[in-house]
Structure formats: structure tokens, C-alpha cells
Amino acid sequence: MTQAMNKPPMKTAAEALEHLLAQAKPSAEVEVVNTQDALGRILATDILSQVDVPPMNNTQMDGYAVRVADIESAGQSFNVSQRIPAGHVGTELKSGTIARIFTGATIPPGADAVVMQEDCVVSGDQITIQEVPQQGQWIRLQGEDLKAGGVALSKGTYLRAQELGVAASAGYHQLPVTKKIKVAAFFTGDELTLPGQPLKPGAIYNSNRDTLLACIRSLGCEATDLGIVPDTLEATRDALRRASKDYDLIITSGGVSVGEEDHIKPAVTAEGRLDMWQIAIKPGKPLAFGAVKKQGANHLETWFMGLPGNPVSSFVTFLLFVRPFITKLQGRAHANAPTIMMRADFDWSKPDRRNEFLRVRINAQGGLDLFPNQSSGVLTSASWADGLVDNPPLQAIKRGDMVKYMPFAGMI
């Protein structure tokens, strides 16, 4: 039987992701941080509102608080009986009078609507109402946003600026969040040179280092660069041992093929366990997943993920596989990458037998343009693009077809 016949079938992207997510267990470690410092963190528990929001009926507009029953027709005039700025509480509104009121101020007892000042005419002490108000008009009701004791934010919420505002309005100056996932990254390849250093013959600058570390940090992780590791088995094993001590996940780029200078497979196998997968995607294909035994800690492991070395392949496999794995470790809810059906304003007449992820950009007409060079070595395609088209195997695309679009903004 030939080697080709012995080769296991390639996994689909969905099969690989399902396996990865089945292994990941959300972190149980929790810390309390100031609400102002919680941006990009994951909420560890439900938080219940400590107050009604808003805590009282208040006005949405500058204008006049009125009794609707007093206003039978437009053009009626009234005397102002009181003035109520925000932060002050008025007295009961007497029948036949109105109250001058300012945005955010408490609605006085007896009033049941607000007429905004633009719909009133001021003439000395008289205010003429130019429209008949509806009951409840321009009034925010007590607790219409949050009820005291109700869930303000749910466990697993990714905390953006707006969630921090909700937490503050619910009375929280501190929040329980999961501890940051600690990720170590190193890179293999004697041809790699760091930017700022002179290029030797046959060398290239290491773009994957900055791309992947930025991707890791964009997910709210603590990222540590362990540098470029020499292409030797012992150097690779040493890097794995060092990284396993203090980190939750090790990510490498390069060295996951089967060449003589690719030492990831024997190194991880010696220090832990490893699966090597060929995934039916383009760009991408090789992906390594496993774990490294923590030094001096029985039965504890640090997760390992090895990405391909080509820059676009590394970037795309991070988005498709590493990102969801990390968000599962974080305990993040609703973390699935969004997919939007959009119109292709391009032709793709020679599809691959693998699931392709094409770099595209939304144009002014609301369709998708295709970057002309889809090579896995052309990182400018990812910089130019604002997302990917998830194209099924052997699926040709004609201009005007609807395709699955995955915006980068929903992933990093």
C-alpha cells in the first residue's frame, strides 16, 4: 500500500474546531478589578443591579412638566409654578400650572407628561402649549432600563465600553473577571530575523511575531514573546519546558511540517502529547494541537498550538482555530465569529478542492472586492482586506453571487 493511501483524510475546518473546543475548559480563576480597569475582560459571574435604573421617573427633554388632563387643546397658556433642575426634586404639581424642568430632573408628583420647550411659546410669565401632549410623553420611567435585583450583565460577557457603563449605572465600582489567559509564543526558523537587525543572505524579517502577538493581546490575553528558537530539537524542547511553567497556552509559528529541520512534532511529543492535522483549508492546512507537561507539577499541562509559517496561513488559522479556543478558555459567551451573506463583486473561476478563505474588502456599492493576489505569502492581502469570504470546496463564484463574509472586526 502506498504512502498516499496510508495518509489519513484531511479534517474539515468544522471537525478541527469541534475537537479543539471539546478539549478547552473555561478558567475557574477569578479576580476583582476596578470597573475602569475591566475593559476587554470577561465577566466571571452574573452581576445584579443594586438600584433601579433610572432610580426615579425623569424627563428626557428640557421643557415643561404638565398634567395631561389640564390641556384640552393646543394654544392654552399656563403659569410656571416651580423650576426643577436635574438633581433636585420638585413639589406636587398643582392643577392648572406647569413646571419648568430640565433634562434628567425628577418628574414632580401629579405630572404625567413633558412638553419639550420647542413646542412652547414664552410670553412673560405665560407659557403657551402649542400641542396636546400624550400621557407619558418624554418621561423615562423608574427602572425601565434595569430593575433592582435583576441581572445587569451576565457571566461570560466580554466587557466593552458600553458594558462598563451598564456596570457603573448598576452601582458597581469593581467587577469579578476571569484571570487573563497567559500565552507564550515562540517562532522557529533559522531564516528569521527581527526587524531592526540587518538581513543576512537567505533571511527574512519575522512578520508572524508581531501579527500573532497583536492577535493574542487583542483578545485580552497576557502575551509573552519567547523569541526565535534555533532549528534544533534540543532548543525547541527547552523552549517548551520553559514556557510550560507559567503559561496556559503555547503558540508557535513554523516547523509544523515534516521536513528534517521541523522539530515541533518530536519536541512536543517528547515533552507531552501532540496531534498533527492536515486541515482542508486554504490558506492553512497544517495545524498542530496538544499539550506540554508542566515542569514539577504532576498531571498538569499547558496547551500547545502550532501554526504554519506562511504569514497569511498563520493569521487565518489563528482566527479560525486559536481565537475560538482562547475564548472558550476565557469562559466568554457569544464569541462565535459573525458570518454575513454579502454580494461578491468579483469572479472566482478556479476554486480549490479545499475550503478557501479569501481576503476581501467591502466597497462603496455594498459589495465585496477581492484582493488580486491570494497567495499565503502575501500578508498585504490581509492588511488591505476587512474580512474573509468562507468559500466551500470546489465552489466557483460569479459576480453577483451571495457569499459568506466574515468581518475581521468580529474576530480581532
Shape: elongated
Helix share, percent = 10-25%
N-to-C span:
45 Å
Strand-residue fraction?
A: 25-35%
The stretches of 5 or more residues where confidence is low (pLDDT under 50) are none
- Label the structural class: alpha/beta
Radius of gyration in whole Å, from Cα?
30 Å
Q: Assembly state here?
A: single chain
- As laid out across the biggest beta sheet, the strand order is 7-4-6-5-9-8
Helical stretch tally: 8
Largest sheet: 6 strands, mixed
Strand tally: 26
Compute the average pLDDT: 93
In words, what does this structure look like?
There is one protein chain. With 412 residues, this protein is an alpha/beta fold. The protein is built from 8 helices and 26 strands. The protein starts with a helix and ends in a 5-residue tail after the last strand.
